[in-house]
Amino acid sequence: MPIVQVHLLEGRSKELKRKLISEITEAISRTLGNSPETIRVLLNEVPQENWGVAGMPISSRRNN
Q1: How many angstroms separate the CA atoms of 2 and 16, rounded?
Q2: By CB atoms within 10 Å of each CB, which of 6, 14, 17, 47 scores lowest?
């Protein structure tokens, strides 16, 4: 049973996340030959203040 974890910044719509899950599932099914029912996709949404780039939270970088 493949399990895929995707870490992304929070704020995307439910529809966009639904599409992402669907397309990841399709790609894994096509590539590995697993049926979609056996594939798990976990979206981990991270607040901007908890995601750092170059030593600064993204929330600080985007406000500059």
Answers
A1: 22
A2: 14
